[in-house]
Amino acid sequence: MTPPPITIADYAPEWAAVYAELQAIYSLRLGSLARAIHHVGSTSVPGLAAKPIIDIDIVIDEKSQLNEVINRITSLGYIHRGNLGITDREAFGRISDFVPLVGGSERRWMKHNLYVCPHDSISLRNHLTFRDYLRFHPESAADYGALKRRLAEEYPHDIDRYIENKTPFIIHLLRLSGFDGGALETIIAENKAPSTIS
Which residues are CB-contacts of 152 (< 8 A; sequence separation ≥ 6)? Predict the structure, then answer.
């Protein structure tokens, strides 16, 4: 079966508003277990064209907290999917569009990818560094948006090729931001792994 086409949409202010609502739900459920919660990925950069899927990183202090965090997140209707090939990052899917399940609400939530990572993980540093670079360099954000539109046209049903072909742009900006060679090699290798999150 052919997967759905990759869609790149113009930036929408509602993305930040939906993130804020989700962040409040996670904060309430996790309490002090969450060191921080970050809106990452392209939807977190004002003005940037993006797949309309919100990416969220929940940060924890210690890996020993992970089991309790998983229990609390899955109680909202999420499914723990393991690290999906990314070191020190745990991914969560949803059992339905109504997740997170809160207070008997039947709200259909915008698509989102939820991750949990330790505060010192390469994945978290990658997400935050790249996000912040694009926020402060709108010309680079515009270039990235144009690249994503082109790749979505070239590989409309191949998310793995889409990701792999935008990785050099990401690596270039991370290198400009001071990432060391070892961390960059890890990111390059892991971005070549098959992707199973939409």
Answer: 5, 6, 7, 8, 162
Is 50 in contact with 148 (CB distance < 8 Å)? yes
For residues 39 and 59, give the distance between their C-alpha atoms in angstroms, rounded to a whole number. 11
pLDDT in tens, 1-46: 788 999 999 999 999 999 999 999 999 999 999 999 999 999 999 9
Domains and CATH numbers, the chain: 14-191 (3.30.460.10)
CA distance 198 to 196: 7
Query: Could you give phi then psi for residue 128, rounded to 5 degrees?
Result: -70, -40
Beta bridge partners of 90: 116
pTM over 0.85: yes
Instruction: For 148-164, write each residue's pLDDT tens digit.
Output: 999 999 999 999 999 99
Q: How far apart are CA 27 and CA 37, in angstroms?
A: 8
User: What are phi and psi for residue 116, nearest 5 degrees?
Assistant: -125, 130
Q: Is the dihedral of CA 184, 189, 195, 196 positive or negative?
A: negative
